[in-house]
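Methods — Computational structure assignment.
A single polypeptide chain was analysed. Its primary sequence is given first, followed by the predicted tertiary structure written as structure tokens.
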Amino acid sequence: MATNDLTTVKNFNYSENKKIFEQAQDFLPLLGTDYVEFYVGNAKQAAHYYKTAFGFQDLAYAGLETGVRDRTSYVLQQGKIRLVLTTPLTSSNPIADHIKKHGDGVKVIALWVDDATDAFEQTVKRGAKPYLSPEVLKDKDGEVRRSGIHTYGDTIHIFIERKNYKRHFSSRI
């Protein structure tokens, strides 16, 4: 369907995988959702709830035992869905401030991309407010590239590139 008049676009069936405007280019090809991170008051309790109530399984953990000193995070997975449940270890922490302001809720929607640097540059060029400049995190299993932008409210999008990483998740992320 090609049109220059937006008022004629009605009841478009998005499931057909057709472009509304033939000239449209995909400047941000998304490969999927990498994970959704919740900031919660008690990550251990929240992880238990998601595992027992919804059947999620443990995938990764970050905390004092892994060298992370400001927060504890549990990564859970069910099929293609990954949740990160993060709680601060002190009350003087930006994560704690976020929970005080909003309660438990989504902070990060991480999007899986082929090129995290390009995703950042393309979105910022179009007016997105930068949150995290492109960076590379390395460990014994390879490297993960990531970048991020602000979206609505205090929620952010992180672009994740894992093509040079051997495992499913890094405890540094």
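Note: The chain has one domain: 27-161.
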